[in-house]
Write a structure and sequence with these properties.
Four copies of one chain form a homotetramer. By secondary structure, the first copy, chain A, is α/β, with parallel strands linked by helices. Chain A is built from 14 helices and 13 strands. Chain A folds into two domains: 93 residues, Aspartate Aminotransferase, domain 1 (Alpha-Beta Complex), CATH 3.90.1150; 241 residues, Aspartate Aminotransferase, domain 2 (3-Layer(aba) Sandwich). Chains in contact: A-B, A-C, A-D, B-C, B-D, C-D.
């Protein structure tokens, strides 16, 4: 019998509506490299959702690729990017940012978040240092929404980060790999139009939010990155059959599917959280989106591991193990029911 | 009414068998980053097709990305790659190779091909130059099969290139973006096992050969590139949902689909060629695979353009235009019939 | 007995006035990284010589380093640099430009020069190509004065190149590794103020023109490259003891030494040329500056090689060898006299 | 009246013996790029001093350049370099390491040093992480001797670091920008032969130890970096007039000058330290080599600053300032005497 699988939000294929759309459009000829009508339709819907009719919108294949390509385009010569020391670009992307010549400057996180105070403190000290011209300039701030810990930036926190960016000439970039699950959270107060107002660039994640693959980059200020198309090509990030991404995002932004699937996944995560709390388990930190982090005793970990696929998260001490369970667009009520049976 | 579309071999979606497989496997959980059972199955089938049971096989998203990532991995410090001056990496990939620090050294082509003599001539002169340590070393040879002109390397030509590579310490890399249409050509004498025997690395193209997207890199000598997984990640070329590529290549290598669709597309191209020749048109160079190159008088070009989507290829002189028509897995006999009516 | 040495213009140490200045200033404390008074004085004199009181002036160590650092700063993302196919950056700098991610686009030379027509032809065709966004943009034009063949751009030729640059949004960069010998040539009509008017950046060569080492970059439009100091550091091109370069350029630009030594070296080269022509030897191409290129029969080459150090240049055919003899600031009348005896 | 200048060990020109040697050899012709007899002689003497007759020895211009070029050559794909978070490459070289695509991984320092325990802890945890193939591999360890805080690695500490490197497949690289002052310290127990035995590569600093400029890289295992010459060229680190570096290192390694000038500078530093301690000042940390670090009250700082050039080091709290005073080969007993008068 197959174990229950809560290991991540990308263990399944795609939302059925996406597969359907791919099938229905399959034999319609389309031009390449994102110049097709499907991409154009998706762009329009995304711009509308962001209340940003002028935004440049680009489609890429994956998260690391998107972070690398956008940050390389946003950063000037001798500039690095600030991030929380838990930020995905810092440790878990194989040095993809440094590969393009830019330093990742990691600052201590708070619940997985980079605070405006930390960013400001760094930038202020940097420019106060009389030798700063011998150092890497802070050129951008990287945040993820939700964060790697499933936590959320509030509107106030993001606005404060943007103010710091404006003061010190930095760009604000937001990694929305799991953005649907932020937008779908009952604790969230940051909308797509807010992101379009506050970020120089951000991406709307598809891979972890119902698509087979794909991320949609939004650059609210049209023309901010005038060579971005060619930069995508140069980074190997420009799909020949751009339609594959266009059709998917067009579907995700039709009839509010993107947010709806986020809401449902967060509902499931809330139920999962409730199950574990009711059964006496402890959370590593409070769930805010679609991910539940548990702090297990090692024997609990062993027992649960036999029945449930989870993600090992970290080993905080000799007798405990932290794990992550993720709900997704594909998590059914029955899965939660089965989990209930498994942990009782 | 929509025009007949022969602009390229990637104007449609995917082969129906692929869409079917994606649907059927959609709700089966799978681990990420190419570690899943679909990828493993596809790898086995590809190894078997190549008679190379030990080969490393990796799945990437697109051609430029694959060329960039594999060449960067094959090349040592201060090494560049030789290619025909018609080679895709030289002019049409936005400097993706140079972006990773490696020079592309273009040599005069012959029917779109790099001859062993040209490669050897360059390497010999290079090492004869007493100042060669001030220059970029030739570290690899890039060829495409079929070439950008739809032509084919013969087994003899590839073997000769490999001998030159061995003599001068270069790696032989083959770009198989349209490999199905080489394998499916009546003029081809190079099999997958031949490629596995002669190349240090090559890729089996999916994007232009029936997949939604995806390319399968084959490295016949297991462990030749020990960090390739991490290099894929660092280049932004590692898909989280690797299953999307695994399922597709598993389908393409089940029951000979990959070669079969190549054969059929080449059949269609042959019919298209015959139509044009019968109607008195001239070829730019003789068709060898799925692409037909025509040398049109400008007024012919204008007339045809109204009914048919073709690719502008080049302007050889003031009164002529060269164009390309491509057949693909998705070109039906009816399309050829319609073309016949259109050009009569 | 030591052979007469005309192998290059950097076989000796430094002009005696430079050694003297280094000794005299040796125990004066100075701040680091080019912030010292010697550099400041040299900058003022260079600006005055260029009639460009606002120019940014930077000191680097060598030619390849300077080309790499300046071009990397001038070029935007996805931009490459045009040059004659004889240009030093194309073949003889070990891919230093590509190492920073930029393609070198070599065009056919004419007497070692890139013509405005060739540059314009390329740029025009580039923007006319509907796929140009898939290609490397031409971002700069590289020329050397004198060229690798010792030839000179006329004022008219440089002005035409600048017009092409302005039309197509390219930067004009001039490599002046041997600039003293251009400025000192009787055939030259391009002055330092002309260069400052026509180039976006150029460098005044020290290494081959009397200094122990060092090149002075002039950026006529102040602030054009606002991060250049940090870029120098990042490229490893910022000397801690910047004074070493400052003292030398201060000396070279005191009392017209730089041009004077150029004039004298060109005089010697003219005498060398005359000797060879009188003795019945053939020139590969007519001498214009401090370098004499001879087209020797192989037995002449062997005979001369026993007495004279020359630079092998190329093997134009099976029975001839082309060589280069260079005069420099350090070539004495006695050396020419001795050469006369040697070739008679 | 000029202030006493103890700001750094590179405020003066060169040791008189070096200027003399440059003058004496000035008119002797020499071949370029380090192939000359002066470089060869210097290499022999350095190999002898290191008891390493087979070592490869290369001459470069400056410290950042050397760190960048050697680390880029030592590191494989996807590899980064570990260093103490006080390491020069981490913060003060403008991202020169990242510029070549490699991540700098900073670990907490202890007195300016990276401990073997810290390096081992990182490497062990790295390989224990099941996701480590998604991360930057630790490929080398960077240490400086003396450190940026003037402290010294003991032989035991270096040997322990090498053991960790061997266990985890890392290269040990030592930055000897101020190596003369380590070798000349009464507290040092690490000799040049020790370094040649323990390091995969290290450099003997010239710029801060009596030369006008220049650093000598020693690679004890001949052929470890077979393309290093070309890599120097590609990094813009290969001087045309290599003789300038050869003559200087030949002088520094004749009659023990290099170590002798180190001993004398450390003597002066000891006297400076004694003066300040006697006058009631506090050290930031105990002097070990040629640099004295003081922890001053702000009003002390202001008072001293009027008479003495020092380096501002850091602001540990609101009322104190840390400063650095450096002695060098050029610090005379009279300078110390004058300092004594100044601080009384």
């Amino acid at each position: 019998m197959q174990k229950l699988n809560f290991a991540s939000d990308y263990v399944l294929g795609a939302h059925p509506a996406i597969l359907r759309a791919l099938s229905e459009t399959n034999m319609e000829p389309a031009s390449g490299y994102g110049t097709d009508a499907f991409c154009e339709s998706a762009r329009k819907k995304i711009r509308a959702s962001c209340c940003c009719p002028e935004a440049d919108v680009w489609f890429l294949s994956g998260g690391t690729q998107t972070n690398q390509t956008v940050l390389d385009a946003l950063l000037g010569p001798c500039e690095g990017v600030l991030c929380a020391d838990t930020g995905h670009i810092g440790g878990h992307e194989a040095g993809a940012i440094e590969f393009t010549g830019h330093k990742v400057i990691a600052l201590p996180h708070k619940n997985g978040k980079l605070t405006a105070a930390a960013a400001e403190g760094f930038a202020k000290a940097f420019y106060a240092d009389e030798n700063h011209e011998h150092m890497v300039f802070p050129g951008a701030v990287y945040v993820s929404q939700p964060t790697e810990y499933g936590t959320l930036y509030s509107l106030r926190e993001l606005a404060a980060l943007r103010r710091v960016c404006d003061t010190y000439g930095m760009k604000l970039y937001l990694d929305g790999a799991r953005l649907a699950y932020a937008l779908g959270s009952e604790l969230n107060d940051v909308t797509l139009p807010d992101l379009a107002r506050l970020c120089h660039a951000f991406y709307i994640g598809g891979t972890k939010c119902g698509a087979l693959l794909g991320e949609a980059v939004v650059i609210p200020q049209k023309g901010l990155l005038p060579r971005f198309f060619t930069q995508m090509k140069q980074h190997g990030a420009l799909l020949a059959k751009g339609r594959v991404l266009g059709v998917q995002f067009d579907t995700l932004f039709t009839d509010g599917l993107y947010i709806r699937l986020g809401v449902e996944a967060v509902e499931r995560a809330k139920e999962i959280q409730a199950l574990f709390l009711a059964a006496g388990y402890r959370e590593l930190l409070p769930r805010e989106t679609n991910q539940v982090f548990l702090l297990l005793e090692d024997r609990q970990y062993e027992a649960l591991s036999e029945k449930i696929e989870m993600s090992f998260w970290e080993k905080p001490d000799d007798t405990h193990t932290a794990v992550r369970l993720a709900a997704s667009w594909g998590t059914a009520k029955e899965d939660v029911e089965a989990l209930k049976n498994a942990i009782e």
